[in-house]
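Example 3.2
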Amino acid sequence: MSAKTQHNNILLAVLGFVSVVVIVGLIGFFLLDRDTETIQGEVEVSEYRVSSKVPGRILELRVKEGDFVHVGDTLAILDAPEVRAKKTQAQSAEDAAAALSDMAEAGARKEQIAGAYELWQQAKAGAEVAKKTYDRVQRLFDEGVMTAQKRDEALASYKALEAQEKAAKSQYDMAVNGARQQEKRAAQAQVNRARGAVQEVQSYIRETVQIATIEGEVSNIYPKVGELIGTGSPIMSISIMKDMWGTFNVREDQLKGLKVGDTFTAYSPAFNQDLTMKVFYIKDEGSFAVWKATKANGQYDLKTFEVKARPEKPFEGLRPGMSLIIKK
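Structure, written as tokens:
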């Protein structure tokens, strides 16, 4: 092989090597340096916790986790014997107050009225006899036959019996008229108070049967049948599947002017499908949240914002916890 041929071969090898390096560099420039920046979020849902105002023991659970419940469905039944005992006490107090109120309204019994009338008539008769006796003694005194002392004794007896008659008449009038208006109002107030206590206990009894107030899916059940729960203790959580959104933690340099009311496209890996979402909430995470420190480079700190957005259209099958990807 001549020297010229060897030189050509070396030149070709060098050119080939340079070509490979250039091609690899171009590939790296167009591919490796242009990685897509992504923001990952998560699907969330509104929840409400079912709890009771009264303590009790779980007697029955009518649903299980994963069940979809509608408004009015029975969720759980509690056993609260103390509440039932309080109901008996409250009803007895209401009955007693009602009886006293009826008595005040009705006034005295007819036997009491008749007895008061007889006492009045008896006192009236005694006063009439005393009046006649006094009149006779007064005439005798005027004629000089009777002493002044006898006349005074007759007068005192007459006045005493007259007072007794008036007192008996007052007792009879009171029996006829019945209780005073103030007493009637006081008796009615006692009835209202006792009735309110009964209504309060009845509201507690209704709390022993827990029903769904909003339709949704039972996500968690905390106690087991037979366990005791305290006042306000959660029994179960229900996810309101109609109120679902995605939450994203976005660094402020990635917001690109995003504001409430804007829409963007997010990718759902679970369905391999894009969906359009509308922003309804933007708030900074605070200094405790993830942030990027750049002051060391002579630039500025970047805070992280929480962005919440709802799908513009219902997306069948979307569930809490699923990932959502925003590609920038």
